[in-house]
Design brief:
Blueprint lengths: L1 H18 L45 E5 L13 E7 L4 E6 L5 E7 L2 E6 L5 E6 L4 E4 L4 E5 L7 E7 L7 E2 H6 L5 H7 L4 H8 L35 E2 L15 E5 L13 E7 L4 E6 L5 E7 L2 E6 L5 E6 L4 E4 L5 E4 L7 E7 L7 E2 H6 L5 H7 L4 H9 L25 E2 L15 E5 L13 E7 L4 E6 L5 E7 L3 E5 L5 E5 L5 E4 L4 E5 L6 E7 L7 E2 H6 L5 H7 L4 H10 L6
Antiparallel strand pairs: 1-2, 2-9, 3-8, 3-10, 4-7, 4-9, 5-6, 5-8, 11-29, 12-13, 13-20, 14-19, 14-21, 15-18, 15-20, 16-17, 16-19, 18-22, 23-24, 24-31, 25-30, 25-32, 26-29, 26-31, 27-28, 27-30
This protein binds 2-acetamido-2-deoxy-beta-D-glucopyranose (5 copies).
Length: 574
């Protein structure tokens, strides 16, 4: 028996590696063949892992067991974008609902039979009964589970991951064992605090890890349907101009502006959501499989939190003007606990289609068998049915999150309060750019998202510039700025915007804004990079010692004109 299993494992090692989707954007690429500690002796054993030789020599485990072989257990996997796990299912056992933020999972059944399933971001449940030799692919970031329903026979499987550190977020543990307030859970699961406490009582604390990847890069400036007439309005979204003209919503509302609502975002790795929280409302626990979320509180106060892969809960109370970063793929929520005042926020995502997995909806409203849920949440079928009965018609939710640097880890590590008083002062006399990027807000590091606040006094210009690492999604808060960009065929696209409008400047293209009005204007911009960087065209061209003759020829003018322009520009700030 043991020999047969080892054989299956060997077959699976080969087969699993060849078949996993490791061509996708995933772990960062390395520029060497492998990453090995500098002073290690380099021989065949450096690339060998022998730690599970005796796994099948011992008795089968009494409960579900996962044996991970990732970067931590097998350091040579570092930079190789692949790892593995051996899964043992005693009769009747469940691997409860969970996600792998950094990788899809390719499961190969070695022994016995398994019922498996996952829930996509439209909350559709896909299930299958597998026999030995079958494989099943769980797409990246989606909630999934396995169940050995045979009452007498064990089952075993081997899984391959397209990441050296795929990470695991256990849904029951992250939601019920990390100190999220009972009132928030009761509201989220539409049940009472007593039921929540009953479920909580059976959980201890687990541990797990996490990872990264962005939208695929595009190789054109933008992706627009071929039949579309390409004009400034192709890059403009005006669908929410009247959002605030109507009465505030009676329940929590999320207004998404992603690729579906705004097709020009396709390929630009950035999107946005407007969040309205009536007094006392909750945005229930959810994840965004494809992006972190950078939340900016516009109005009111919010209690926010997320759970990391070690099941630590980070919470913070935010005021208007504050930002909070929810790391990619982690379960998070927001709560407006004020009983009389509403709250509003704007969120930025580093993906054109961040996706949302609602924890209450995906677990309790998609037809997962009651017995699987009862086993997963260590409660009885009657309790599961009570929760399920309350789930119909839950509002769709939105939002994402990000990861911190070192320092003391608590809610404040994910909070940026540096611009609270920006609007307490007089408007600036000239164009002002207030960045909230990796430098100002270190927790953005690695999260592929950042923000800037732009103030345009009457008549002011944000001169032509490019952001080499990111598109820019501009949201006009006040006034009527003119905007424009030039694509790589040198076609200029311009548009006059109004408050509430958005405009997308495709990645790397020269663009500008001009407030040709007697009133001041203001905007908030989102970037799909923690450090989008800026290359000012006037500065880079005219203050960097490019020969006058070259410039005169380039701009089809004379040297005197070039020198006049140069004289008017400040020296290049090194
Ligand atoms: C490398 O060698 C030094 C000196 O022998 C030792 O202190 C250190 O622990 C070694 N590092 C690793 C990763 O083995
Ligand atoms: C459990 O497994 C045994 C052996 O494969 C099989 O004979 C039996 O029918 C299975 N029982 C169920 C309920 O599937
Ligand atoms: C609710 O908001 C109002 C206005 O900001 C404030 O005065 C009041 O203290 C808040 N109530 C609570 C319970 O925080
Ligand atoms: C965080 O890391 C930096 C750079 O390694 C280091 O200088 C700093 O002391 C660290 N801070 C803490 C609190 O560990
Ligand atoms: C600015 O506005 C004035 C008055 O409407 C108009 O004549 C002028 O063409 C505008 N300039 C630009 C660059 O749009």
């Amino acid at each position: 028996m043991a020999a047969t299993l080892v054989m299956y494992v060997m077959i699976c090692l080969v087969f699993g590696f060849l078949s996993s989707p490791i061509a996708q954007a995933g772990d960062p690429d390395i520029v060497t063949d492998f990453v090995i500690p500098a002073n290690a002796t380099l021989d065949g054993s450096s690339f060998t892992f022998t730690g599970i030789r005796n796994l099948y020599a011992t008795d089968p485990p009494p409960t579900f067991r996962v044996t991970k072989i990732g970067m931590k257990e097998f350091p040579a996997l570092n930079g190789q974008s692949v790892s593995m796990a051996i899964l043992d299912y005693p009769a009747g056992s469940v691997n409860p609902p969970h996600t792998h933020p950094r990788s899809a999972e390719l499961l190969f059944v070695v022994e016995g039979s398994l019922d498996v399933g996952f829930i996509d971001t439209t909350n559709m449940l896909f299930t299958q009964t597998l026999q030995p030799g079958d494989m099943f692919i769980f797409p990246k970031g989606l909630v999934h589970f396995q169940y050995n329903k045979n009452a007498t026979e064990p089952a075993a499987a081997v899984s391959a991951f397209g990441s050296a550190n795929a990470g695991t977020v256990s849904v029951p543990m992250s939601v019920f064992a990390t100190g999220i307030d009972d009132a928030i859970l009761a509201e989220s699961f539409k049940t009472d605090a007593a039921t929540i406490q009953k479920i909580k009582a059976v959980f201890g604390f687990l541990s797990s890890p996490i990872a990264q990847a962005g939208d695929p890069d595009i190789i054109t400036d933008f992706v627009i349907p071929e039949y579309a007439t390409l004009v400034g309005s192709s890059f403009t979204f005006t669908g929410i101009r009247n959002l605030y003209a109507s009465d505030p919503p009676p329940t929590f509302r999320v207004t998404k502006i992603g690729m579906k609502e705004f097709p020009a975002l396709n390929g630009q790795s950035v999107s946005m959501a407007i969040l309205d929280y009536p007094a006392g409302s909750v945005n229930p626990p959810h994840t965004h499989p494809r992006s972190a979320e950078l939340l900016f509180v516009v109005d009111g106060s919010l209690d926010v939190g997320f759970i990391d892969t070690t099941n630590m809960l980070f919470t913070q109370t935010l005021q208007s003007g504050d930002m909070f970063i929810f790391p990619k793929g982690l379960v998070h929520f927001q709560y407006n606990k004020n009983a009389t005042e509403s709250a509003t926020a704007v969120s930025a995502f580093g993906s054109a289609n961040a996706g949302t997995v609602s924890v209450p909806m995906s677990v309790f409203a998609t037809g997962i068998d009651d017995e699987i849920l009862a086993e997963s949440f260590k409660t009885d079928v009657a309790t599961i049915q009570k929760i399920k009965a309350a789930q119909a018609g839950d509002p769709d939710i939105i939002t994402d999150f990000i990861i911190p640097a070192n320092a003391t880890l608590d809610g404040s590590s994910f909070t940026y309060t540096g611009i609270r008083n920006l609007y307490g002062t007089h408007p600036p006399p000239t164009f002002r750019l207030t960045k909230a990027g990796m430098k100002e807000f270190p927790a953005l590091n690695g999260q592929s998202v950042s923000m800037a606040i732009l103030d345009y006094p009457a008549g002011s210009v944000n001169p032509p510039h490019t952001h080499p690492h990111s598109a820019e999604l501009l949201f006009v808060v006040q006034g009527c700025p003119d905007v424009g960009f030039i694509d790589t065929t040198n076609v200029l696209f311009t548009q006059t915007l109004e408050a509430g409008d958005m405009f997308i400047f495709p990645k790397g293209l020269v663009h500008f804004q001009y407030n040709n009005d007697t009133e001041s204007a203001a905007a908030v911009s989102m970037f799909g990079s923690a450090n989008a960087r800026t290359v000012s065209v006037p500065t880079s061209v005219f203050t960097t010692d490019i020969d006058d003759e070259i410039l005169a020829k380039s701009f089809k003018t004379d040297v005197a004109t070039i020198q006049k322009i140069k004289a008017g520009l400040a020296p290049n700030p090194k």
